[in-house]
């Protein structure tokens, strides 16, 4: 799948399963490329995040902010690349169904403009491998190249447009 | 990643990126190419020297009247091709983003291995770029050349639009590539070029140099290429230039003269032309500071509004001053819109 020769470590689908299925242990997972494998950099549980209360009410705003902060810390203020999945809980209104609570997993391919060209190249050409492993049907992919593309409102708008009125 | 393992050694791949203006070569994983050489090659026709030919034929024990064909001379590289030589024409191996002249291309690749990369082709895997509209015959020809002539251990051909997209850290995007001979728009989806939605048009850097030449002609400025100048004196701005022609110049061909003139025009466009950030605005044009340009013969002139009006032709065809055919040409914005509309509806963002 990937054109770079980078493969996906078996831990990746196993960890992802703990986010997408069953008890949904993890809230978000960060992946990176180490040597020639895509490996799990960090997997964060709901408890570790320390956020309680109705997340659907505020559409995961505070959880998302912590997630972005973690990304910035791990990429040296956006000068390195990462892949990330985040369990986005939000509410949206649909005609006929009223407001409904939704849970969607977003996949972020974070290749900031400040990263080296080689890094960006490797992460972009390997993205298809990890996306295929996670299952393209279960994730909504996004490409991030600078901080403005990491705003909570932007993601909420896009998710709303896709899963809201239609 | 940077290298593949061949026979236990970590060796890096070589990257070749051919364009109409320049040919870029380098090592995979490095930030910049090692070499960026003009795609034009100076080809010197051999002199028909009967005496030498007969002599050679005799030495080979061949007394018949067969004339040994004398070899052409090839000159490659920025500093080599600008030397004035007799019977020498400037030829490019590229045409419309595709490789057209395989003999010249082979010379180019050979030169890159020997004089830029200093590598043995048999020891390094090679990556070539191709334009999105490359055809099967050319792909086969290139593969054959690389394996049979250069004996590369591994070889891959990739679309240049996809690679540019990856270099930006993205797998999806609408790639606008404005080159010397043409501008193309290629949608890239999930790391694949959407070839049926490619839009291209013969408008690019060369059009701008043509516009410049047109402007100079209109303003009655004589464009003297560097190679003709022997001595020159400093004169005040706008004064007639004082220069003497270089003596003992060989009789150069028209294509060489044209190439050298184009070099001056390219330098001129790189140093003084500028684009408006927004839609061209006459107030902005008036306020733009003028920039002096010194021609190789010592003549200096200030250019003001032309600086911004000339390159605008890429975005607005009404600025394009040309005799006749404008139909069939598209601006960059039109091309991007057409290409986006040609792509399947479900792959648009």
TrEMBL record, chain A:
UniProt keyword annotation of Kinase present: no
The protein, known as: ADF-H domain-containing protein
Keyword Zinc-finger: no
Record's keyword terms, sorted: Actin-binding
Start and end residues of each ADF-H domain: 3-160
Family classification: Belongs to the actin-binding proteins ADF family.
UniProt record, GO biological process: actin filament depolymerization; actin filament severing; embryo development ending in birth or egg hatching; locomotion; muscle thin filament assembly; positive regulation of actin filament polymerization
Record SMART domains: ADF (SM00102)
One term of GO molecular function: actin filament binding
GO annotations of cellular component type: ribonucleoprotein complex; striated muscle thin filament
InterPro entries for the chain: ADF-H (IPR002108), ADF-H/Gelsolin-like_dom_sf (IPR029006), ADF/Cofilin (IPR017904)
Automatic annotation (TrEMBL), chain B:
Gene3D superfamilies reported for this sequence: 3.30.420.40, Actin, Chain A, domain 4
Domain of life assignment: Eukaryota
Entry-linked InterPro entries: Actin, ATPase_NBD
Homology family: Belongs to the actin family.
Protein name in UniProt: Actin
Source organism of the structure: Caenorhabditis japonica
